[in-house]
Specification:
Length: 295
């Protein structure tokens, strides 16, 4: 197939590799010259605008940071719909709110373009094992399955348009809770006289039911004080914030998630937004005077 891709950042470039490796022709664009150059090196045809992608691709994927970026790419002056072709499909693989997805889907439908949401469940390190919960019409999902299945280990149709994003945002709440509790636990360990490294190593090597893959990953970064971003606090704030707003909008006040979001926002307020989510440890160290929080 002729596949388009808007956004060749951390997750996008991994999706691009899978698409090219499977033998599809890939046309890609990205606002970052370095990101699009990397895509070109793996075999993608690089273009300068979303409109140029729409001129050449039948299935178009988007992996972008925020709903605002999605709206610009879909409906902007040189956006996808400016060169829309009937029978095209736009698949949003970003983490955005379901309302934004439904609005973009309605705009696309006016041009005869189908729309799906298929956010990624999985970290970059899990590439090859990603799961894609997909929202949209079942017939469109089946049409796009040959492309989606080269990106995700499982492609699960979870309901109408927006359902994929709903599921992803609920998962974001769990991610944030595990991340914040790991940071809190590490800081309390220091105050209680237990070395965080010993705590982490013992739990990570145990069969305790509380141990998750995320705990192992962010806990290791906290112990090593390696805060280079796998997933930045700015993105964590965005995703969890969208999830909190979604919960409130459907009459389900998110009690724990709101407290977690306050901690995320405190981290961003301390200038940690570009660091990994594990840097939330620094906020707890400062609050508890557990160690030098400037480390």
């Amino acid at each position: 197939m002729n596949v388009g891709l808007i956004g060749t950042g951390t997750m996008g470039i991994l999706a691009a590799e899978s698409i090219v490796r499977a033998g599809h022709r890939l046309v890609a664009c990205d606002a970052s010259p370095a990101a699009i150059a990397k895509a070109a090196r793996i075999g993608a045809v690089s273009v300068e605008s979303a409109a140029q992608v729409a001129e050449q691709a039948e299935i178009i994927l988007m992996l972008l940071p925020t709903p605002r970026h999605i709206a610009e790419v879909v409906t902007g002056e040189r956006g996808l719909l400016s060169c829309a072709q009937p029978s095209q499909v736009i698949i949003d693989m970003s983490t955005v709110d379901p309302d934004s997805t439904r609005k973009m889907g309605a705009r696309a439908a006016g041009f005869g373009v189908a729309y799906l949401d298929a956010p990624i469940l999985g970290r970059p390190s899990a590439h090859g094992r990603w799961v894609l919960p997909v929202g949209g019409e079942a017939s469109v999902v089946e049409r796009c399955r040959p492309v989606l299945e080269v990106i995700g280990r499982k492609v699960i149709h979870v309901g109408p348009l927006g359902a994929g994003n709903t599921l992803k945002l609920l998962n974001a709440l769990m991610f944030s809770a595990i991340n914040v509790m790991t940071a809190e636990m590490m800081a309390i360990a220091s105050k209680a006289g237990l070395a965080p490294e010993l705590l982490y190593r013992t739990l990570a090597e145990s069969e305790a039911a509380t141990v998750s893959g995320l705990f192992k990953e962010v806990g290791a970064k906290m112990v090593a004080r390696d805060f280079t971003p796998t997933f930045a606090i700015d993105l964590l704030c965005k995703d969890n914030g969208l999830a909190v707003t979604m919960a409130k909008s459907c009459g389900a006040p998110p009690v724990v998630a709101s407290v977690v979001q306050t901690m995320n926002e405190l981290a961003r307020a301390r200038g940690l937004g570009s660091e990994d989510t594990s840097a939330l440890l620094k906020v707890y160290e400062a609050l508890l005077n557990a160690s030098d929080s400037t480390n």
